[in-house]
Amino acid sequence: MRASTDQVWEWLDAVPDPEIPVISVVDLGIVRDVRWEGDTLKVTVTPTYSGCPATSVISMDIETTLRAHGIDDVQIDTSIAPAWTTDWLSDKGRARLEEYGIAPPQPAGGPDRCPRCGSKAVEKVSQFGSTPCKAHWRCTDCLEPFDYFKCI
Amino acid sequence: MTRDEAFLQFLLRMGDNTLILGHRVSEWCGHAPVLEEDIALANTALDLIGQTQMWLGLAGEIDGGKSADDLAFLRDAWDFRNVLLVEVPNGDFGRTLMRQFLFDAWHSIMLGRLMTSSDARIAGIAAKASKEVTYHLERSGDTVVGLGDGTEESHARMQAALEYLWPYVGEMFVNDDVDAEMAKAGIAPNPADLRDEYDALIGHVLAEATLTLPESRFAHKGGRDGRMHTEHLGHLLTQMQWLQRAYPGATW
What we know:
The complex is a heterodimer of chains A (about 150) and B (about 250). Chain A is built from 3 helices and 7 strands. Chain A has about 150 residues and is an alpha/beta fold. Chain A has a 4-stranded mixed sheet with strand order 4-7-6-5. The mean pLDDT of chain A is about 95.
């Protein structure tokens, strides 16, 4: 008996992002579609940033996970349009990011508060951070630097 | 020139620009003046090389099933179609950022137009790349202002960078048969039509940076049609392509 797509989504929600393991690839919004075509399970993923080295690792992790659940015939399709946007981050993902110390994306273009102490007194250090999806900010109250997940 | 031939040339121009600039910018990795700038430059390079995979991936598909890697690593200097601006050496940090700004401004305007391309694949790549390039432009523009309107030394260096790079700007706005074919098909705009918007954009930023735009409109050409690259491209390729040249077909 083959797994339902709901079941597959649940399994994929347990696949961590390789760079930010507190959120899943589903939280990140990069899994766009899961469907059966005959006996083949087709998973459509979209890259976050076009050069993000995590993208190929994510595809491999998805495939490995599904095989571990007994699905042998997996095909991963990459789709670039519509382009990935941080609007696709799940609410659960946004909350986990903040708990982990990464300020979630805000439409205003910067973090609304320090993920550690909650202060609104924050300033940008650099438009880029430890991965393509993040920028480097600092809290001027608790003085801790932190990552901000860029809003795109 | 057939539509297909022009389309391939167009894709190579887009992909070679991002590939060669991406490689140039990556040369700063581990050498930038401060850690934050090192990270920013490496991330910018990464975005550009990611975009290259999309442009050259599509170019390879229509060019007899080659991969983006085949095109990047197995062509010689005369086959490259990037503008000369992106292959000139980095110079100092200021010149690297000035070049980035002059390119980002063109790139962002071009991608904006390509988002409404009659070819859905082009529009898709442009929409994706445009998000990244908007960000690049914001940073390179801010840095040009910061350094231009900075200390006496940083100002002098940025003015020198602008004067050195300015003759390479014009090539981004030259029209030829490839462009005419692409414009006719609604695939891409005529580059010359982007010039007014470009001049307005950079004029505004350079004024804020207290820098003076050179008056000459002389333009070095020969990159985007492959007629004559600078001597710098060959040197760049010897580094970039070394592994595939020494160990053909090597994978890891």
